[in-house]
Design brief:
Elements: E1 17-19, E2 22-27, E3 33-34, H1 36-49, E4 53-56, E5 62-67, H2 69-81, H3 89-94, E6 97-99, H4 109-121, E7 134-136, E8 151-156, E9 159-164, E10 169-173, H5 178-191, H6 202-207, E11 219-220, E12 233-235, E13 238-243, E14 247-249, H7 250-257, E15 262-264, E16 269-273, E17 284-285, E18 295-297, H8 312-319, E19 328-331, E20 343-350, E21 354-361, E22 369-372, H9 379-387
Parallel strand pairs: 6-7, 7-8, 18-19, 19-20
Antiparallel strand pairs: 1-2, 2-5, 3-15, 4-5, 4-14, 8-9, 9-10, 10-11, 12-13, 13-16, 13-17, 15-16, 20-21, 21-22
Helix pairs in contact: 1-2, 1-7, 4-5
Bound molecules: iron/sulfur cluster.
Organism: Albidovulum sediminis
InterPro entries: Cbl_synth_CobG-like, NIR_SIR_4Fe-4S, NiRdtase/SiRdtase_haem-b_fer, Nit/Sulf_reduc_fer-like_dom_sf, NO2/SO3_Rdtase_4Fe4S_sf
Keywords: 4Fe-4S, Heme, Iron, Iron-sulfur, Metal-binding, Oxidoreductase
């Protein structure tokens, strides 16, 4: 089995990543929100300089795929005109912020997001690893506990709490002190050896025995368990729509831009501000019972150079009739980009364009069946293998 390649950094707009279908250009919407003009502009730029496909990422970003190296400069100029480009690649890499999409006018969430983004833009802001990020989860109800982040900003004691990920306590903060506190914690993470060789995450650092400064021990975290991921449907500030496998076509994004501002969520869904019903557009998932909501599939072949098989057509064919209670993950290789956790049925591409089946496991777990031909697979055949003693 060939081992997946670990890149160790996240692509940005100024520092894109080459993939099998061209450059992947990741755009980080400010405050997790795209105005109608920005969404329309991204759709036009995707169609002009990319292959017309746009990913929604697990960090609430949007990725334009299939961009040529020759077109990258013009694309960046277009994105800059939309207000979506940072001063430098370093500043862009630092601005790794996920914002609760359920903020409401006057609750201060967007102010916190703007203040933190401004602090991270300073040239002397801590240059944390590419995957290191911040979650702003101080909306009406916390919803980001299950979303990857290293520094969490939540509500506590009538104010805010800046909490290291996985810690039971954090530092009390106000709107004025929240950004300095967050950067102080990031500086401590680096100074205390959290990122040897430029890589590292907060939870692993604490698990290895690092002790946070006393300042971050003063406020207990709010007592809440992990929030389940939201499902498509009406939300207090609009309508939440999913997209198949977290990817939408440029023309779909252009049509959505006509419905209102879009909040990009870390669950690969978009919240259409102010909408009371979903638009009727191909590829949108408008309700909670669509079985494709329980199906994950990465880019696969030919878009990803590490993929051994095409993933999405297989996932769509098998997933359309997935019985309630089952989850399906189709991964082009063992890296498992689309779904790092377990699924009832996991198919992993192997050299020779075959797949292995893993039951109730993740892509790196031991398979129940190996060397299956994707062309001959049906859901019932998979479940029969799955049920075999
Ligand atoms: S899991 Fe999929 S997208 Fe990730 S590296 Fe493997 S083939 Fe590529």
């Amino acid at each position: 089995m060939s081992a997946p390649v670990i890149q160790g950094w996240c692509p940005g707009a100024l520092r894109p990543m080459m993939s099998g279908d061209g450059l992947v250009v990741r755009v980080r919407p400010r405050g997790g929100r795209l105005t109608p003009g920005q969404a329309k502009g991204i759709a036009e730029l995707s169609a002009r300089y990319g292959n017309g496909l746009i990913d929604l990422s697990a960090r609430a970003n949007v990725q334009l795929r299939g961009v040529s190296e020759a077109g990258h400069g013009a694309l960046i100029a277009g994105l800059a005109a939309l207000g979506l480009i940072d001063e430098t690649a370093e500043a862009e890499a630092r601005r790794n912020i996920t914002v609760t999409p359920f903020w409401q006018e006057g609750d201060g969430v967007q102010d916190v997001a703007a203040t933190l983004a401004s602090a991270l833009a300073a040239p002397d802001a801590p240059q944390t690893p590419g995957k290191f990020g911040y979650a702003i989860d101080c909306g009406p109800v916390p919803v980001l506990q299950g979303v990857s982040a290293d520094i969490r900003i939540e509500r506590a004691r009538g104010g805010l709490c800046v909490r290291p990920d996985s810690a039971a306590t954090g530092a009390f903060a106000t709107a004025a002190t929240v950004a300095p506190r967050a950067l102080e914690l990031a500086r401590w993470f680096l100074a205390s050896g959290g990122a040897p060789a430029g890589r590292g995450r907060m939870a692993a650092h604490l698990a290895a025995g690092a002790r946070v400064p006393d300042l971050f021990r003063e406020v207990p975290a709010a007592p809440h368990g992990p929030a389940p991921a939201p499902v498509p449907g009406p939300a207090p500030t609009g309508y939440l729509v999913g997209v198949e496998f977290g990817q939408l076509a440029a023309h779909t994004l252009a049509a959505l831009s006509g419905c209102g501002a879009l909040r990009v969520t870390p669950w690969r869904m978009l919240l259409i501000e102010g909408a009371e019903a979903p638009p009727d557009l191909p590829g949108l998932i408008a309700g909670p019972h669509n079985p494709l909501l329980r199906v994950s599939a990465c880019t696969g072949a030919p878009g990803c150079p590490q993929a051994h098989v095409a993933t999405r057509a297989l996932a769509r064919a098998l997933g359309q009739s997935l019985p309630a209670g089952l989850g399906l993950h189709v991964s082009g290789c063992a890296k498992g980009c689309a779904h790092p956790g377990k699924a009832t049925l996991t198919l992993v591409g192997r050299p020779g364009s075959t797949v292995d089946l893993i039951r109730d496991g993740a892509t790196t777990d031991a398979p129940s069946a190996c060397g299956l031909d994707p062309a001959g697979l049906t859901l019932s055949s998979l479940i029969e293998i799955d049920d075999a003693p």
